Amino acid sequence: MAAMTEKSYLRTAPAEHLPPPLEQAGLLRWARENLFSSPGNIVLTLVCIFFIGWTVPPLLRFFVFDAVWSGSDREACLASPQLPEPGACWAFVRVWYSYFIYGFYPIVERWRVDIFFAALAVGIGWLAWLSAPRRDIGAVYFFIVLPILSYVLLSGAPLLGLAVVPTAQWGGILVTIVVATVGIVVSLPLGILLALGRRSDIPVVKFFAVTFIEFVRGVPLITVLFMASVMLPLFVPERLSPDKLLRALVGVALFASAYMAEVVRGGLTAVPRGQYEAAQALGLPHWRMMAFVIMPQALRVTLPNIVNIFISLFKDTTLVFIVGIFDFLRTIEAARADPHWATPVTSVTGYAFAALFYFICCYGMSRYARGVETRLARAHLR
Amino acid sequence: MPQFVQSSPPSSHTARRTRYIALQFAVVVIVVALAYAAIHNAAQNLANAHITSGFGFWNNTAGFDISQTLIGYSASTSTFGRAFLVGLLNTLLVGALGIVLATVLGFAIGIARLSRNWLLARLAGGYVELIRNVPLLLQLLFWYNSVLKALPLVRGSLAIPGGGLLNIRGLFLPRPQFADGFEYVVIALGFGIVASVGLRVWARRRQDRTGEPVRVFWMAFGLVVVVPAVVFMVSGAPLSFSFPKMGRFNVMGGVEILPELAALLLALTVYTAAFIAETVRAGVLAVSHGQTEAAQALGLRSGTTLRLVIVPQAMRVIIPPLTSQYLNLIKNSSLAVAIGYPDLVEVFTGSVLNLTGQAVEVVTVTMAVYLCISLFTSLLMNAYGYAVAVEER
């Protein structure tokens, strides 16, 4: 031992690792492998860089640097000596934004809409957060309490001192969200029923379910909306004629149900046969087996697809515009035609704002769906 | 100790049967009752509004103009039935063009997303995310109201290389004019195509029999391109173009593409391409890497690997979702009504419905037409799916 320590030229600790050569590590290696691995790749990279350089700076200039952020009328957004080429007219959005959110909903009653938004957010958060406590109560809240609460809040109840607001005054993001929410709240239970009907071994039930699903999936939403808005009033006694928004809601809900049924059916086929057999071996009757064993698993597996249906439903709500409902897109269309704000950039600004809103909502939902998917895949691997 | 309830199987079986039949009977009764109530109400409401139901209106004079007609149509003499046909053809036109364009763009972007070039893959991914998450109707309005309405007036038309003009009235392209003798070129082209297909079949049979590959590309090229070109020259170049010219207020000559059609095609193509790109990406990723390695181990070149190993297997995965994207495109073309492109919905469910008030008939016919188109497209794509299906032993 003593002899060892005398040999001071021997290392007592291993040398530090040398860093790899510069071109074998870090950014340079990454760039070499991902951007410049071959002549063709180099050309592609250069073309892409050129494309980015060609598109991004003008867009940034238009939407941020040269944009007009404040002002009270079109003068602010017109070309002036200080700003020869004005960018997006955000001042227009700032002036109109409460119209974009509430439409013609009376200003003194708008707190009711805000409460509705908050209640809805609670419900969505409760159901979307997979490890939230008591999600069964959440489901009851979302599918039963919330619809009643929203109806009372939004259209009013004179008994409770809430003034009646006719649906003709609703508008903007409020209507978009109402249509989308009614779509999901109605289509999920109806879709489950239709999916069970389609898998049923009772011929008549199966026949009606298949006919309905395939018929609705074969036609465009616009024709379903037209049917709801021009044919539905004919099919009910004249005094019961539903109002315009309700007709559109019926159309959207029926349309979404057919797509939801197919997604639920996909989830049902993913439940292994052994689960059915185990439930039957335990002596569960058919409906209890479905409710407590099969459906929870099927819905869990297919949750990402349900969210995807909801994303397309959310985008499709814009079509109610065509049957004359004042949804968010329609308010944009109405506002951009306002002569006080008639500038060359008003339309683009309005559309950009709408696109931003839809993009944030839909992209958020698709990220969520993907998160659930990876979580399910992990659970599956275990 | 739990009590076992002994039930005799035959009686429970009969009970179940009875229950089934009762349930089916109840469902039928409910549906029939609802249908009866609806029809009864409809008859009463129509009678109150003094509308006679039926298709009597079909042969009445339409009396409204349509901005794009592929077949002869005039407001004063043509019937509602003719207007229906005009709208249907316009829908089919936009559907067919949209499917072709969206397929090309979608495959390009799907492959770009799989590129080993990081920047290109990211750009393609950004395109897909951006386009998929914004409603089609919003995109359509953007293209129509913000992009095409911002084009210059007729006087300041933009010239497009090749003799086209682009302005706020639409896109004007040269119109080909065929002189006598062009039919020989067409015949030569048809002959060339048939002969090349025959050649290919022969080459494949020979390869199956003897194992020797035959290169047919240059021969096929000669048959399809060179021979018709020679015939074209010999018969005195019987093809000329009428170029669009700027008039004082409008453009004369050429083929006119309405701004509505252009906007609709642009929006449908860009939107559907994003979905097709995802389909293509999923399809290619579904082919396991072992297939590529096996092909390389057999000594196939990378192009051959792609053509004979990857693409056939990927297509099998791609075809079903691609079909539903095509169906979506055709159904989405009904958004034309928002910008006034005279498609089936705009002409028939819009103008004809407003003029006649025959809501039930008009909406039913429109839905039936879309169902038929959907069914036909599905059949076509299924047939193609069978044709490209990989034969398994």
Q: What brief labels describe this structure?
A:
heterodimer, A: 382 residues, MetI-like fold, 15 helices, B: 393 residues, alpha+beta, 8 strands
Question: Mind explaining what this structure looks like?
Answer:
The complex is a heterodimer of chains A (382) and B (393). Chain A is an all-alpha fold. Chain A has a domain at 96-105 and 165-381: MetI-like (MetI-like fold). In chain A, 69% of the residues lie in helices and 0% in strands. Chain A is built from 15 helices and no strands. The relative contact order of chain A is 0.09. Chain B has 393 residues and is α+β, with helices and mostly antiparallel strands. Chain B folds into 2 domains: 80-160 and 257-388, MetI-like fold; 175-242, no CATH class. Chain B is built from 11 helices and 8 strands. In chain B, the strands form 3 sheets. Chain B has a 4-stranded antiparallel beta sheet with strand order 1-2-3-8. In chain B, β2 and β3 (170-173) form a beta hairpin. Residues 1-10 of chain B have low confidence and may be disordered. At the A-B interface, α3, α8, α9, α13 and α15 of A face α1, α3, α4, α9 and α10 of B.
